[in-house]
Specification:
The protein is of the alpha+beta class. It has one domain: Arc Repressor Mutant, subunit A, CATH 1.10.10.10. It is built from 5 helices and 3 strands. The protein has a 3-stranded antiparallel sheet with strand order 1-3-2. Helix 1 runs antiparallel to helix 4. It is elongated. The chain starts with a helix and ends in a 7-residue tail after the last helix. The mean pLDDT is 91.
Length: 88
């Protein structure tokens, strides 16, 4: 869970996740939305992959990235367990 919070702690990574909500993208397509170097985008994508927030799949010479909604759903469910009950 710590890797997820570390991944979500950065605004660039959160923006990448927002982009991927609209559909799968290659690293180059993701990089086109930012004014930072492609190696920096690769670093952010690596952190998101290690946190299992995104999946990477080879598509010819490109790698396509997609949201891993299962991990997101699990994290939301866990966060909701932290909410105090109405009786408290």
């Amino acid at each position: 869970m710590n890797a997820i919070f570390k991944a979500l702690n950065d605004p660039t990574r959160r923006s990448i996740l927002e982009l991927l909500r609209q559909g799968d993208l290659t690293a180059g397509e993701i990089a086109d939305h930012f004014d930072i170097s492609k190696p920096s985008i690769s670093h952010h994508l690596d952190i998101l992959k290690r946190a299992e927030l995104v999946r990477a799949e080879r598509d010819g010479q490109f790698v396509r990235y997609a949201l891993n909604s299962t991990v997101m759903e699990d994290m939301i469910a866990w966060l909701l367990t932290l909410k105090p009950s109405q009786d408290e």
